[in-house]
Write a structure and sequence with these properties.
465 residues, alpha/beta, eight-stranded mixed β-sheet, six-stranded antiparallel β-sheet, binds adenosine-5'-diphosphate, binds aspartic acid, binds magnesium ion
């Protein structure tokens, strides 16, 4: 069997959903399980509705829910036949009524708890998996809706719940496999789950990729296909650098580094469950299904190019802790890290000097509180609007003077922090957010103008066979 995951852009409207039905039909002999995201931008809208409700903005919250109601109803109507529609319409109406009640309840309580936020957000995947199931049935696919909350069992950390792989495997074998054996096509929402007690959770933004990988690993899939709106993993974000080329093959380790450092195309954790079972992962384009996409494998073949790709992660804050006398002192770094830990804030890049420690964190509301705690032991400065840029490639290990070449390609762009070597397959540095487009274009020009055709597409998307 295979897992086919369709991201938000691949199911954004009736035409897109119809396209996915054709893609699934073409793979029925491989016994697909389909994992779908919410339609694009729906998760953002639900989060905004929950936030508005929590702040007491009732009309705004209900207005956002109303827009989503219309969008889902219009999508459903366009996809199913007239006889099938009334039942689906009534089901959607019922679900949206419960969403309205939930939002009114949040307004009444005057607070959005992480638990209710997960509940609100879960509507995106729950409703879309229902619409997609009906659309597939209308197109002759024996689709069967599976409630993701019965399969994706997680802990109770709302917003970032940790999936329990063993339990998921057990549930997938009991609930999903029998459908496959019966020749049906199971459809489930990604991203959402529930605790063993049945409380709804979500597994982090972009988490549908992770859901797909967990189900695929639980069922020993032959392949996991991540369908999105670009031709695969590219040498850099194609929205910033139109010259970006498709990467034909990439290793798990390289893909994970890239995903972690901002290549939004793949959720960072996706690759883990697949690596553990040696299941190949493909990134494919639902707008261009004939393209062979990117294959992610345990060990990528040797390539003549130093780098596979460049990623950038924006919204980074640099925190600088200055404590001239304390820095060498035993336990000082631990005290700093403990403060970040207390605020559940993870650190990406660290560099130390004689008098200071600089750290980068994703910008978030906790930073002033962290700074206040740090000020008890040292002087603290922090600055937002930075970005981490990361060049990834297994060949970095063996390439001399690579850092010098990278920094000379950047020219006069000011580099604020540098880190190389932690994983041996990346060079990472921090620059101002405003410099990201120029930095990516310069690096891309320097390192991807001449590349190994075994590993990358030629310009214009041509492929060497
Ligand atoms: P989905 O809705 O399918 O989950 P995402 O928006 O999460 O899609 O990811 C796809 C997007 O990731 C692409 O449209 C592209 O703009 C962006 N992206 C960023 N970096 C890369 C990269 N290196 N390769 C491919 N896409 C990238
Ligand atoms: N719908 C969720 C999000 O927007 C999960 C996903 O798309 O993977 O984050
Ligand atoms: Mg995604």
């Amino acid at each position: 069997m295979i897992v086919m995951k369709f991201g938000g852009t691949s199911v954004m409207d009736p035409m897109a959903i119809d396209r996915t039905a054709h893609i699934v039909k073409g793979r029925l002999s491989r016994r697909p399980v389909v994992v779908v995201s919410a339609m694009s931008r729906v998760t953002d809208a639900l989060l905004a509705a929950g936030k508005a409700a929590g702040e007491g903005h009732r009309a705004q919250a209900l207005g956002l829910a109303h827009d989503l109601r219309l969008r889902h109803q219009e999508t459903a109507r366009a996809l199913v036949d007239a006889a099938q529609y009334p039942r689906l319409r009534d089901e959607l109406e019922h679900e949206f009524d419960t969403l309205d009640e939930l939002l009114k309840g949040i307004v009444a309580v005057g607070e959005l708890s992480p638990r209710s936020s997960d509940y609100v957000v879960s509507y995106g995947e729950r409703l879309n998996s229902r619409v997609v199931t009906e659309a597939y049935l209308a197109r002759g696919i024996r689709a069967a809706l599976v409630d993701a909350r019965q399969v994706m069992i997680t802990d109770a950390q709302h917003g970032r719940a940790i999936p329990q792989a063993e339990e998921i495997e057990h549930r997938a074998k009991n609930l999903v496999r029998p459908l496959l054996e019966d020749g049906q096509v199971p459809i489930m929402g990604g991203f959402i789950g529930a605790t063993a007690q049945g409380v709804q959770t979500t597994i982090g933004r972009g988490g549908s990729d992770f859901s797909a990988a967990l189900v695929g690993s639980g069922l020993d899939a032959e392949a996991i296909e991540i369908w999105t709106d670009v031709d695969g993993m590219m040498t850099t974000d194609p929205r910033i650098c139109p010259d970006a080329r498709r990467i034909r093959v990439i290793s798990f380790e390289e893909a994970a580094e890239l995903a972690y450092f901002g290549a939004k195309v793949l959720h960072p954790a996706t690759v883990l469950p697949a690596v553990q079972k040696d299941i190949p992962v493909f990134v494919l384009n639902s707008l261009n299904p004939a393209n062979e996409g990117t294959l992610i494998v345990g060990h990528a073949p040797r390539s003549r190019s130093t780098f596979k790709a460049i990623a950038a992660k924006k919204r980074i804050t640099i925190v600088e802790v200055v404590a001239a006398r304390m820095l060498g002192a035993h336990g000082f770094l631990k005290a700093i890290f403990d403060i970040f830990d207390k605020h559940h804030c993870s650190i990406d890049v660290v560099s130390t000097s004689e008098v200071s420690v600089s750290l980068t964190v994703d910008s978030n509301e906790a930073i002033p509180a962290i700074a206040a705690d740090l000020e008890k032991i040292a002087d603290v400065k922090y600055a937002g609007r930075n970005a981490i840029v990361c060049l990834v490639g297994e060949n970095i290990r063996e390439t001399p003077q690579i850092a010098a070449r990278v920094f000379s390609a950047l020219g006069e762009i000011n580099v604020r922090m540098i880190s190389q070597g932690a994983s041996e397959i990346n060079i990472t540095f921090v620059i101002s957010e405003d410099d990201v487009p120029e930095a990516l274009r310069r690096l891309h020009r320097a390192f991807f103008t001449e590349v190994d055709p075994e590993v990358f597409d030629l310009p214009g998307g041509a492929t060497v066979h």
